[in-house]
């Protein structure tokens, strides 16, 4: 669908699982060379190997500045350029009441999501600015645009990613580097499945609250990423695109979906 993506180089953090992995598969199918960077080095290498010889898997913590620099350098050493950066590395928050939360957990969450996204953008931008072309896609969340009790750190980090996306989008637009974010609703990935299994999310309740009446899939997000990565999105920068089955559009007091929950 986007022939220009063939031969482009895509670096994906958190690419060993869920949304990042679906993006890696979709971009590899489109002919891009994919570099997967993940906290779990073995999982990153396995995921890259499964995509084929043209792809690379790397270990690294996006909250660690030296590791971030190493990831960018290794991707550039392999391909000589980076055309697309997808910041999908992430961890869930504790879901505890605020008074029971640990400040260390708050800091770690902000470090991984917000500071990690900032540092990855900063590490990859010099190459993109030299090329005068690049597309950065960050992961926000419905939690970054709506208030969800007990989710302080995650929500603050995701809202921060929305503003970071705007500020960087404004700074680099004239040099051909676009910065956008996607705000997924509830997508059935290992991340969300774990929260459902632990009783932290109620899948039936979420379906009733979602106009589309179902949870999304990682592929729904990957499809939006293909568009934002492509030249068809060349005049789009600084936006946070909800991909949530209408979740954030809904404002009435009643359930959004009254159909069967099979
Ligand atoms: N699944 C959802 O419903 C949903 C909704 C809104 C936003 N998101 C966001 O989308 C992104 C991806 O979520 P997912 O559902 O694919 O989760 P996932 O758990 O399936 O995948 C996340 C990946 O990030 C990696 N990771 C975690 N911490 C890291 C670190 N410090 N450095 C490098 N890699 C790290 C993990 O190892 C894992 O492979 C996250 O930012 C998440 O907050 C997900």
In brief:
This protein has 262 residues and is of the alpha/beta class. It has a single domain, classed as NAD(P)-binding Rossmann-like Domain (Rossmann fold). 44% of the residues lie in helices and 14% in strands.
Description of the molecule:
With 262 residues, this protein is of the alpha/beta class. The protein has one domain: 3-Layer(aba) Sandwich (Rossmann fold). The chain has helices at residues 18-29, 41-51, 65-79, 103-131, 152-172, 190-197, 203-209, 218-229, and strands at 9-13, 33-38, 56-59, 84-87, 134-139, 177-184, 240-243. Strands 3-2-1-4-5-6-7 form a seven-stranded parallel beta sheet, sandwiched between helices. The two termini are 33 Å apart. Bound molecules: nicotinamide-adenine-dinucleotide. Residues 13-14, 16-20, 38-40, 61-63, 88-91, 112, 139, 141, 184, 186-187, 189-192 line the site of nicotinamide-adenine-dinucleotide.
């Amino acid at each position: 669908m986007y022939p220009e993506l063939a031969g482009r180089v895509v670096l994906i953090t958190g690419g060993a699982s869920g949304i990042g992995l679906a993006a890696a598969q979709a971009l590899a199918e489109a002919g891009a060379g994919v570099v997967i960077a993940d906290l779990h080095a073995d999982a990153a290498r396995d995921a890259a190997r499964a995509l084929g010889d043209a792809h690379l898997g790397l270990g690294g913590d996006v909250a660690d500045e030296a590791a971030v620099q190493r990831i960018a350098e290794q991707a550039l050493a392999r391909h000589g350029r980076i055309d697309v950066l997808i910041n999908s590395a992430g961890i869930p928050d504790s879901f505890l009441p605020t008074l029971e939360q640990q400040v260390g957990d708050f800091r770690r969450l902000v470090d991984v999501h917000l500071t990690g996204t900032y540092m990855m953008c900063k590490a990859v931008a010099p190459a993109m600015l030299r090329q005068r072309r690049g597309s950065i896609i960050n992961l926000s969340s419905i939690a970054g645009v709506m208030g969800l009790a007990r989710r302080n750190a995650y929500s603050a980090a995701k809202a921060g990613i929305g503003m970071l996306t705007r500020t960087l989008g404004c700074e680099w637009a004239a040099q051909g580097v676009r910065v956008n974010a996607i705000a997924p609703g509830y997508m059935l990935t290992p991340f969300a499945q774990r929260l459902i299994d632990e009783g932290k999310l109620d899948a039936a309740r979420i379906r009733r609250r979602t106009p589309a009446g179902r949870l999304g899939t990682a592929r729904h997000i990957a499809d939006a990423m293909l568009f934002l990565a492509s030249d068809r999105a060349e005049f789009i920068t600084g936006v946070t695109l909800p991909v949530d089955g209408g979740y954030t559009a809904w404002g009435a007091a009643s359930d959004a979906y009254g159909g069967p929950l099979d």
